[in-house]
Amino acid sequence: MASHFARILSTKRHVGILSLVGAGSLTAGIFLSRDQHVNAGSQVRRLYPASAEYPDLRKHNNCMASHLTPGIYAKLCDKATPNGFTLDNAIQTGVDNPGHPFIKTVGMVAGDEESYEVFADLFDPVIKERHNGYDPRANTHPTDLESSKVRSGMFDERYVLSSRVRTGRSIRGLSLPPACTRAERREVERVVVDALAGLGGDLSGHYYSLTQMTEKEQQQLIDDHFLFDKPVSPLLTCAGMARDWPDARGIWHNNEKTFLIWINEEDHTRVISMEKGGNMKRVFERFCRGLKEVERLITEKGWEFMWNERLGYILTCPSNLGTGLRAGVHIKLPNLSKDPRFPKILENLRLQKRGTGGVDTAAVGSTFDISNLDRLGQSEVQLVQTVIDGVNYLIECEKKLEKGQDIRVPPPLNQLK
Amino acid sequence: MPFSNTHNAMKLKFSANAEFPDLSKHNNHMAKILTPAMYDHLRSKQTPSGFTLDDVIQTGVDNPGHPFIMTVGCVAGDEETYEVFKELLDPVIQDRHGGYKPSDKHKTDLNPANLKGGDDLDPNYVLSSRVRTGRSIRGFCLPPHCSRGERRAIEKLSVEALDALDGDLKGKYYALKNMTDAEQQQLIDDHFLFDKPVSPLLLAAGMARDWPDARGIWHNDNKTFLVWVNEEDHLRVISMQKGGNMREVFTRFCTGLTKIESLFKAKGHPFMWNEHLGYVLTCPSNLGTGLRGGVHVKLPNLSKHAKFDEVLKKLRLQKRGTGGVDTAAVGGVFDISNADRLGFSEVELVQMVVDGVKLLVDMEKQLEKGGSIDGLMPAQK
């Protein structure tokens, strides 16, 4: 896949050497391009020494705060990406949001593809912590969208209410939501909507721009649980992702309402395959097929997704690097959720629980959103298999507890280390 | 948020039309004035500290309109913003400040002896009296644009200046990030504590960045003179007390401000001020005096009267809820204050409040007795 991207020379923007480096010269290529990015257009206005600008992180608990030393700050604070994104821009969300009650947040974002290089001294340790020791300097990330490789994947629908797989994709050459200008954001919308218009068959659908949707369309999208709102989470607003709302934001979905794309929300695109019930295999099959089709369509027009061998698919938040994939179910676990071993079982299965309202919510009643914890270092196929195997195990536990039988905490899955 | 200087340069690769914001659903002063041609002229400019046109207007783009009041929709990042982006800000100022022209001069008058009366507003109706203004420290960037280092320098300088106050103005500084629970509770009980802004008008302008770093509250031991550091402006200066003695409130206000100004000058950092715009503050709505003098007053009958808003307009007063600018009134208690900031002096504005509130209370009393207020209707000020 790397060579495929390497062949395509993006004429749209200054992309740097990154996309042309083949596997053999990876290391040399990275150093060369890093210097180039570091010197390109870096005119950060600086009146005070780095020590006077260093943020107060004493009450903070996020990955950025854990790794941003005064030394690293001093080294990076004068640099900017070629687009003009700075370290302060990258860390602002982590400075403004000391900690999240349910999850240790990342605390920094990328403004463009080059951010991950220019600010590698901070991104690399953050990525390592967030992704179980994955080292962007040493490891490579496998991409695998061959859905036929997945085994079983049909859940017991007395427990599983719905199944969903989502990921994100960024358009190479255009800045990411924290940094993009209005023109860039509109260009992302144009490129993606143009490509989606080429989808056919069960993927054929329609685009609803947030600025132009009628009240009736809006109500329908709300009823379908498709409509995304202007972000209210301070994690996102402090990173500048809600600027110019709702300009160039929109929702595309297929007529069957099983394949959905969000444009310019937290990433250039969020791609979602979903349906009621427990047929995760079909959800994933459609996911892979849809993604490949969209990729083919944008490539025809000379565009490509941001991707490299070290970090996989490049997205705004470092937590979504690699596959950017979250595969999950809404599942009823009234007995298991009350068992004190529940968190440990999830942890060992490499699963995470959320409320059914999304990442910032708590569970209501005993219906949970259960999904994979990991994103980077394992392929899409591997992660979806993990979810399938894990959810089946949870259902077995629930059934046992229903019958008054005891359950076992499974041994921990082999993680990437 | 403050991007580096190259970010704006990068934008210029796109056409002005491709970058021009969609203002079709907007209702604020910026949206009414900014044309594609103006955007084209101004977008390549920046102030010496790097503040750009998009920085000025972002809050207006992100906040199409406010239900209670027509918002300004732009902010300054430094003193030079008002010069570099004159083409936009002069008409905004003109619209917002009753026709104030680019050639007009603003007069400053902080001599409380020039105020007539004001010590006898009926405390049965007037629950509290307050005068506030803001001040910016020349040489530093304003809250939408300042870096952490600058904000901390502003705090340090301010605390040094305030520590030099004595007599009935002697007081203490409480940094937001070092406050104890007990101190915090006391400040809340005194209604002094300001919170991290939640208003999207302020958040979209980047004013809450790095909260609560370098923010704090200073107040005198008597709790009648209060200074907010690094909230929506470098300094917000407030004089307040229960009851209706606006004269006393204003006298303390003037004395305290004058003292503080000389302390900052002595440190080589005068306040931002010029002949045309008066005191320079973050929001164009606060230029001139930056002064809002007002009362919390009970007007349950008058506020239901069909002519209430007309009366306020004639008196050049404005109503708010008692929770502040973004709130609605609760019960019959209103926050009544001067509507103007620029083009009138401090004394003139407080005089309008004093005279106007006196009349409003007379009207309320009249309506209580079942009488009519027709005979009391004022002329347009």
TrEMBL record, chain A:
Belongs to the ATP:guanido phosphotransferase family. Residues 46-132 form the Phosphagen kinase N-terminal domain. This is Creatine kinase U-type, mitochondrial. Gene3D superfamilies: ATP:guanido phosphotransferase, N-terminal domain, Glutamine synthetase/guanido kinase, catalytic domain. ATP binds at residues 162-166, 225, 270, 326-330, 354-359. It comes from Coilia grayii. InterPro entries: ATP-guanido_PTrfase, ATP-guanido_PTrfase_AS, ATP-guanido_PTrfase_cat, ATP-guanido_PTrfase_N, ATP-guanido_PTrfase_N_sf, Gln_synth/guanido_kin_cat_dom. Exists as an octamer composed of four MTCK homodimers. It is found in: Mitochondrion inner membrane.
UniProtKB/TrEMBL annotation, chain B:
Gene3D superfamilies: ATP:guanido phosphotransferase, N-terminal domain (1.10.135.10), Glutamine synthetase/guanido kinase, catalytic domain (3.30.590.10). GO terms for molecular function: ATP binding; creatine kinase activity. It is an enzyme of class 2 (transferase). It comes from the Eukaryota. Coiled coil: none annotated. Residues 125-367 form the Phosphagen kinase C-terminal domain. Its EC number is 2.7.3.2. InterPro entries: ATP-guanido_PTrfase (IPR000749), ATP-guanido_PTrfase_AS (IPR022415), ATP-guanido_PTrfase_cat (IPR022414), ATP-guanido_PTrfase_N (IPR022413), ATP-guanido_PTrfase_N_sf (IPR036802), Gln_synth/guanido_kin_cat_dom (IPR014746). ATP binds at residues 128-132, 191, 236, 292-296, 320-325. It catalyses: creatine + ATP = N-phosphocreatine + ADP + H(+). Residues 11-98 form the Phosphagen kinase N-terminal domain. Keywords: ATP-binding, Kinase, Nucleotide-binding, Transferase. Belongs to the ATP:guanido phosphotransferase family. This is creatine kinase. It comes from Coilia grayii (Gray's grenadier anchovy).
